[in-house]
Inverse folding.
């Protein structure tokens, strides 16, 4: 059908110029000089000759054949094979959950000493406050497990699994407002446009299951709070097939997978083959890598028609599993159901599953707000760890819990004995990791008595990214992508692997 | 120094390629001449003029290219001059030899001396000298005899060390790295980029671009920057085709610049040295070091490379193969669930894998109807560290077949029928850290009760 278009050429003069340069393939076929032609061809346009380095998936035709990683990855033996990132959007209060600060109990209502804040820039929401009254957490803290980790009463289920967790109490970010902070956490830069962590991993390591996307995003339904834009799981300047695929929260995670009425779908394969041929012609003419990305996505969608209904079918999960994750897990789209879904996707070797749960932005009514948030998430977090562990998957699956920043020790707005609000705080917050290659039952880093400044072992977001890449066998300084004349990496020019976190 | 055009250098770099032509031609002419004399075979001599002419012309071309190459200014002057003049001499003599052989010139006074043979012998000697000087220029004057049996290596021999601590960081750790990876091009006779590294003074002086390290600050040191760039970056050192520095070597260089302040005499004992660096230093000096034990266990086995076609073959029969460290030929192999149907014997499939058994360190054959008997094959994968056997019809009778897996760190047996009888076996495997045994015949009481010997491995049961 499309064979007649093999010599499709542009009428545009500028494009013709480009075509002349691109025609390395024709040049080679038409010269019989072999080696000499090869050398000359690459001299003419060396960029193009080596460009497959930047496009590892471009020619991966045989799905079932061993393909050596074209980027030369992994650099070292990876500990992690998959990751589930439980993103708590809004900035959970480390003071009410993990970072126990008994010394400020007696300082209730006192103004935060200037020596602590040191003139640090605040958000517009509390910068105009006359004073900054210290609001000690009203939550009850206890130590749990053999590791004696401090956990507040809000996380009763998580307190059962502290011996599997690796707490980082000294996280630091550069950003004080939600969007730049979450963009920074997910892409390594505050400005939109960089590839997300999942996209980097997909680009670097490729897929372990050809039938499902490498990077899948799940968002808790019916939550409000800070907006989540698709750029947070976007591919930035990496080839498009590496962007995260968002599953809908609800009964049908992916729409229109089943065939419409009166269509049996039998000739879809044929249709895709023709479409593929047309796109091939288009690609040969213009060389736009996005055409290949689109072809890859068409094929992926085709395979997902069978793979997605299979993996999202919850009917084969026994009751005790639903009980483990909590009653919510029977309701598709809730955080608990998403955690369960995450486990099923990880079991199918999806490399990166990203959960988002909004609503951690407690500027006012912090105790009540955070209590409700914990109720929605605590049991499912613990269940996911336990479930992965009993299946042996915690061996090579990394679990990460955390938000984009922490919250202030001082109260935003009215402080009473039972109520306070907390503003954004970038200089210290808590995250935890579990599983593949991180020390279990371990707490790293310390904050001062106000959970305001890090006093020991700070871990910057860049360091966190570097460590995460390290766990996947990647030297964060060596996985780069050349774009607009310079090489980019997830950690840009920063980041150190935090070796103390590694088991 | 005047900038030389890229095109001149581009052509110049063909010099090492072209020089081998006159060598071949002229030696061949010599060989023919000798053979003709001994065998009295006139036919052989017919080609001699042609060989001589080709040799002379290609020598001329080599001279021109060599001159272009010398414009890069990367070579030591006096040595370059010698090579230059002897090379030109060789070319002139080659033309002369041709001219005499073809009777273009007749020098009657010399006739008795058999000028042809004499000139050819002279040519061979000249080629040898030119070649030797050329080699010295490219590889450094010590290259040729470095490993010669008569060459006393004493001059570079460092006194043996009593302990790691007293090793001078520069001479024992840094210099050997520079010598091996950098001094090929930055030495007394060849100073690429104007940089020589063979004496501390010159090393400090740096190259065309100035100093190459900034004592105390490795991040601002050109030396470290250049070796840590992306390998395809044009400034990356060593250049393409040469062996890059290993991570360990880079750590040692960084340590010397940062901790030892790039001092040439300081010893390990007198600066702050991390356990990690001590371990690296000990490895590089071949000393024992009682450091953290995990350094040793993380060492990867060295295995033979695998034919990619074999891997394709295995992929075609359903195995998913991932290389764990690029170039190390170590693989993570998995078989998707139910690839082997229940009514089929798993043995033929597993036996396919035996061809790469040393290369597999992680194996996942879960949910594939693997039986106790099949474990005898699994037991042959001696380098296995992680083994996933979950949801297979195996029980305590199969476990003894796995006792040979001395590297095994984790084994997943969830959903199998193993029970108490396997527990003592697990503890005999010294490297085994974790056994996953949810939904087996093992129960909580079995692992907590009356099993005081069972300090390792960890047995993971279900959550409920």
């Amino acid at each position: 059908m499309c064979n007649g278009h093999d010599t499709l050429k542009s009428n545009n003069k500028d494009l013709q110029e480009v075509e002349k340069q691109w025609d390395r393939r024709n040049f080679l076929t038409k010269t019989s000089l072999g080696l000499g032609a090869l050398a000359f061809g690459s001299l003419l346009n060396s960029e193009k000759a080596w460009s497959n380095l930047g496009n590892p998936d471009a020619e991966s035709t045989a799905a079932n054949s061993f393909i050596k990683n074209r980027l030369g990855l992994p650099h070292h033996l990876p500990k992690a094979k998959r990751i589930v990132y439980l993103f708590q959007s809004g900035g959970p209060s480390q003071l009410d959950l993990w970072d126990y600060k008994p010394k400020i109990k007696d300082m209730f209502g006192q103004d935060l000493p200037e020596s602590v804040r040191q003139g640090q820039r605040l958000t517009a929401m509390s910068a105009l406050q006359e004073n900054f009254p210290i609001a000690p957490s009203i939550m009850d803290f206890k130590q749990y497990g053999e590791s004696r980790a401090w956990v507040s009463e809000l996380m009763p289920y998580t307190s059962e699994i502290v011996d599997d967790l690796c707490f980082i109490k000294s996280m630091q970010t550069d950003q004080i407002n939600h969007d730049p902070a979450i963009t920074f956490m997910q892409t390594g830069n505050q400005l939109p446009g960089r590839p997300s962590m999942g996209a980097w991993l997909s680009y670097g390591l490729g897929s372990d299951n050809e039938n499902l996307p490498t990077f899948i995003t799940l968002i808790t339904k019916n939550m409000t709070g800070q907006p989540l834009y698709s750029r947070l799981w976007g591919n930035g300047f990496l080839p498009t097939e590496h962007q995260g695929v968002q599953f809908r929260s609800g009964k049908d995670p992916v729409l229109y997978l089943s065939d419409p009425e009166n269509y049996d779908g039998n000739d879809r394969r044929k249709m895709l083959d023709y479409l593929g041929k047309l796109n091939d012609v288009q690609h040969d003419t213009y060389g736009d890598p996005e055409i290949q990305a689109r072809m890859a996505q068409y094929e992926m969608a085709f395979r997902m028609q069978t793979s997605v209904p299979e993996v999202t079918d919850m009917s084969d999960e026994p009751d005790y599993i639903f009980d483990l994750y909590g009653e919510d897990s029977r309701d598709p789209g809730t955080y608990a159901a998403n955690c369960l879904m995450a486990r099923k996707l990880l079991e199918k070797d999806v490399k990166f599953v990203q959960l988002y749960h909004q609503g951690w932005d407690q500027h006012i009514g912090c105790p009540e707000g955070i209590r409700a948030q914990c109720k929605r998430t605590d049991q499912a977090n613990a269940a996911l760890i336990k479930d992965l562990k009993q299946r042996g998957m915690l061996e090579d699956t990394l679990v990460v819990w955390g938000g984009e920043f922490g919250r202030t020790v001082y109260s935003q707005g009215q402080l009473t004995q039972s109520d306070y609000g907390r503003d954004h705080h970038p200089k210290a917050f808590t995250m935890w990791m579990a599983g593949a290659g991180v020390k279990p039952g371990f707490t790293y880093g310390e904050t001062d008595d106000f959970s305001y400044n890090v006093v020991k072992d700070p871990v910057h977001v860049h360091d966190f990214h570097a460590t995460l890449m390290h766990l996947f066998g990647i030297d964060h300084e060596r996985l780069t992508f050349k774009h607009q004349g310079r090489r980019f990496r997830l950690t840009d020019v920063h980041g150190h692997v935090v070796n103390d976190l590694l088991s | 120094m005047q900038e030389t055009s890229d095109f001149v250098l581009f052509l110049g770099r063909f010099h090492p390629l072209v020089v081998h032509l006159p060598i071949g031609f002229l030696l061949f002419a010599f060989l023919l001449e000798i053979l003709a004399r001994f065998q009295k075979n006139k036919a052989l001599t017919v080609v001699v003029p042609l060989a001589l002419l080709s040799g002379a012309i290609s020598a001329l071309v080599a001279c021109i290219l060599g001159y272009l190459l010398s414009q890069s200014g990367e070579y030591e002057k006096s040595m370059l001059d010698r090579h230059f003049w002897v090379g030109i001499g060789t070319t002139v003599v080659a033309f002369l030899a041709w001219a005499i052989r073809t009777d273009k010139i007749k020098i009657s006074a010399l006739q008795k001396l058999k000028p042809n043979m004499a000139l050819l012998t002279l040519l061979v000697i000249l080629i040898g000298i030119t070649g030797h000087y050329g080699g010295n220029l490219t590889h450094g004057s010590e290259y040729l005899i470095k490993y010669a049996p008569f060459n006393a290596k004493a001059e570079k021999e460092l006194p043996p060390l009593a302990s790691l601590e007293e090793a001078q960081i520069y001479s024992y750790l840094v210099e050997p790295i520079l010598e091996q990876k950098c001094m090929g091009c930055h030495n007394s006779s060849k100073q690429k980029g104007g940089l020589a590294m063979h004496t501390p003074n010159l090393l400090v002086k740096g190259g065309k671009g100035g100093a190459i390290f900034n004592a105390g600050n490795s991040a601002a040191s050109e030396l470290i920057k250049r070796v840590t760039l992306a390998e395809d970056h044009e400034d990356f050192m060593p250049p393409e085709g040469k062996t890059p520095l290993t991570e360990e070597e880079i750590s040692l260089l960084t340590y010397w610049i940062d901790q030892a302040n790039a001092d040439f005499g300081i010893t390990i004992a007198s600066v702050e040295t991390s356990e990690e660096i001590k371990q690296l230093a000990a490895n590089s000096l071949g000393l024992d070091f009682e450091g953290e034990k995990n350094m040793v266990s993380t060492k990867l086995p060295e295995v033979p490379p695998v034919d990619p076609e074999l891997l394709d073959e295995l992929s075609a029969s359903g195995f998913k193969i991932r290389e764990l460290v690029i170039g190390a030929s170590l693989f993570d192999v998995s078989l998707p669930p139910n690839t082997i149907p229940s009514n089929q014997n798993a043995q033929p499939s597993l036996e396919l894998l035996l061809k790469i058994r040393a290369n597999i360190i992680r194996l996942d054959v879960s949910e594939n109807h693997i039986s106790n008997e099949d474990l005898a094959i699994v037991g042959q994968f001696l380098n296995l560290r992680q083994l996933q056997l979950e949801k297979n019809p195996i029980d305590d009778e199969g476990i003894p077949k796995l006792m040979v897996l001395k590297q095994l760190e984790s084994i997943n047996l969830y959903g199998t029928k193993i029970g108490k009888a396997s527990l003592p076996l697990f503890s005999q495997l010294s490297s085994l850290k974790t056994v996953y045994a949810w939904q087996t015949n093992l129960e909580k009481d079995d692992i907590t009760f009356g099993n005081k010997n069972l300090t390792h491995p960890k047995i993971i049961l279900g959550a409920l």
Remarks:
- The first helix of chain A runs from residue 13 to 22.
